[in-house]
Every structure is written in C-alpha cells, then in structure tokens.
C-alpha cells in the first residue's frame, strides 16, 4: 500500500514534468549558464571538475540500488522533484531568471554524491528539451547545482542534526542553503570567466551575486518550506521506506 502511494506521488510529479515539457517557452533566457556563453577554456575546466563527482555518484547509486532495491522509487522521486522545481523559472533582472533547485531533498535522503548524477540528468534534459542551460555549459551548471548545492545542503543537514537534533530545521536549512550555494557558485563561475574591468573578479562576483539575490533569497526560503512539507508527507505515507533509507545512510553505504 505504501509503495502504491509513493508511486502515485511519482505519477503526480511526472504529470508536472509533462506540463513543463509542453508549456515551457523555448526562447527564455534561463538562470543556468546558457549555451556558448562561457569561454571554451572555462567550459572545459568545469567539465573536468565535475566528471569525478559524476563517477563517484554513479558508484553510490549502483551501491544503493543493489543493496536496497526498494529505494529505487525514492530515487526517482528525488530526481523528479529536482526536475520540477528547477524548471520553474521566475523572471529576475537584466534579462535573466531565477528558479528553485530541488536538490536539497535528495541530498538529505541519499547524500550529495547521488545528486551529482540525478542533478546532471535533470540539467541534460532541460538543456535539450527546454532550452534551459546548454550542453557546452553543462559541466559548469552541473558543478553548481548538482555538486556545490548538494554538498553544502548535506553538510548543513548533518551539522544541524548533530548540534540541535531538530530534523525539520535541518531539512529547511539544507534545502534553502543548497539553493543559495548553487547561485553563489554560478556567480563565482561567471565572475571568473568575465572579471570586471574595474575591480576584477571580486567586483564581478558582487555584481552577479547581487542580481541573483533579489529573487533567489525568497525562493530559497520558499524551497526550504516546500521541502519540509514533502518530508512530512513522506513521513506520513512512506514510513517504511524512510526508515530503510535512514538505516542505509547511518551505515554509510550510500557514500
């Protein structure tokens, strides 16, 4: 019965995915760094930086699905949640847009490494189907959203759980800071590639970060609240899966 309820949730999220595939405007300028925007050297650099995390993530996912195949549906749920939230583009300033990332939930559930795979798959589909991001910039976008965000979110979650024991606070903070750290990393990537003539990298970083903060700070807070609501639903309807997941995480097998 619990698996059927979880399957129903996955189908609901899949419906949202289909909606965005059909209705998303293809010419929108998205927050993900768009195709061809980065100089070739920086595009290659971020691909090289991202690939080791992707390989480790594949190993982590393989280990999870082999040892606990019951969690495959939960993995799909985490990936779909990331896809739907990161497809919600909200107009920002200077012709850009902001959006939630959705990586905090998966980071809390499975740790940061599996999210490097799930997040990069999401980014690939968005680049191909939604003109959201790009293929040459996929390495940079994946490093910010599928590596930096999940690692920060997971570290915050573990720290707050160890220091306060308040799970809801830890989940909210993990989701919100995973979101914000993604945009901090994106601002850094853009400032490294395009330093300001006056002030250099720091001035450019302040400019990009200030632009995104206008919409991203309230979005991060909203994402944190939504992630807590999803977690509450999972606790109410998927207690067996969450218990199994927590045992796996305590055993360190997903890392």
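Q: What amino acid sequence fits the structure above?
A:
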């Amino acid at each position: 019965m619990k698996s059927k309820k979880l399957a129903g949730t996955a189908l609901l999220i899949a419906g949202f995915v289909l909606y965005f595939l059909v209705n998303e405007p293809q010419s929108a300028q998205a927050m993900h760094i768009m195709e061809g925007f980065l100089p070739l050297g920086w595009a290659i650099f971020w691909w090289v930086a991202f690939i080791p995390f992707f390989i480790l993530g594949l190993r982590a996912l393989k280990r999870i699905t082999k040892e606990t195949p019951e969690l495959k549906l939960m993995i799909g749920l985490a990936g779909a949640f990331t896809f739907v939230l990161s497809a919600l583009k909200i107009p920002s300033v200077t012709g850009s847009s902001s959006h939630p990332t959705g990586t905090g939930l998966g980071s809390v559930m499975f740790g940061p490494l599996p999210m490097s795979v799930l997040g990069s798959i999401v980014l690939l589909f968005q680049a191909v189907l939604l003109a959201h991001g790009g293929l040459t910039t996929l390495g940079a976008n994946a490093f910010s959203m599928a590596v930096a965000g999940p690692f920060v979110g997971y570290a915050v979650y573990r720290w707050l759980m160890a220091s306060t024991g308040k799970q809801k606070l830890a989940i909210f903070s993990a989701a919100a800071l995973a979101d914000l750290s993604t945009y901090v990393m994106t601002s850094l990537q853009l400032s490294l590639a395009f330093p300001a003539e006056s002030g250099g990298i720091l001035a450019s970083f302040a400019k990009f970060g200030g632009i995104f903060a206008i919409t991203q700070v309230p979005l991060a807070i909203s994402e944190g609240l939504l992630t807590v609501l999803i977690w509450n639903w999972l606790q109410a309807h998927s207690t067996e899966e969450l218990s199994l997941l927590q045992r796996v995480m305590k055993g360190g097998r997903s890392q």
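Q: And what stands out in the fold?
A: Residues 200-237 form the longest helix (38 residues).
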